[in-house]
Amino acid sequence: MKTFVLIAGGTGGHLFPAMALAQELIRRGYNVELMTDHRVESYGADFPARQIHIVPAATPSGANPIKLFGAGLTIIRGIGTAWNALRKVRPDAVIGFGGYPTFPPFIAANLLGIPGVLHEQNAVMGRANRALARFADVLAMSFPVTRFADQQKLEKIVTGNPVRDRVRPLVGKPYPALTKNGSIRLVVTGGSQGARALSDIVPAAIALLPDALRHRLQILQQARAEDIERVAESYRQSRTSVELASFISDLPERIADAHLVIGRAGASTVTELCVIGRPAILIPLPGSLDSDQKYNALFMEEGGGGWVAEQATLSPQSLATRLEELLTDPDRLSRAAAAAAALGQPRAVEKLADIAERLAGKHIQVEGRPTS
Length: 372
Hints:
six-stranded parallel β-sheet
């Protein structure tokens, strides 16, 4: 039986597509193990792996030479830890999902001659994946146009970004009808850790809407635990119906029931919006390396499925104006929902699993040591 080791940074953005691939490979009858960092305890408790290996990792960035030296030692230690684990597991292929914790295990796999796939979730190729591309056999991309990918000399395939099993039944679910006086369901999500900016701007924008429109709203908003009471008070003052949570366990289902989503533009968020087919106002996280969220959001906007709102220029008044325009134009929202669905790649996980199988089929075990 073939064995695959998935390698991912320990946050939701990297673990969710890795989890989707793990589920698909297990369905195909294979063994799956995970290599990641200590953050998996917060985001990957239900990851379906036979075993989870915690590998030391660090980011070799910054100007402080002491910190750089320390990061280098941690990376070397991580390569050694991963080397020992991979020699015992003897996988047929590894699949990396980006983030600095991918670096030590992917290097160790290359030294052992194990074939590898890199998957890039964003519309901008991450720095870890750029550094590892020379050691990979295939680059799988979520977006047809991915910045910095053209510079990499390896096989490239657009697969899309795998979605978790709970998202898949929502593919093709009709956009909910928006009647003249009926309720309007709005979902506000700030990513895996919430977003303070959305907690500040969105309730203030809602308060500026006309009473007749505001009273039709049914809002679900994710907020950091320390912000929930403040956000609740803001909505109480504007007499708006709201449900607040620091974590929304059934977020995909709630997105499928929504008429409009307001959120960050992380790869998983944009992927699920497109696969489910729901329109969104996307507010890219400012200050992120290489502006990856901005390019994710632009992909959706250029495809007609959403609207980009830069946080630096976004105010409660400008957001209220945009919301009033959209929420009073059901046809526009319905067209955007259809456009978002047209951008989706619901079979991304099958495509990525096919690539992993192909590489594993080329892999031979010689005298107990993996080689390609």
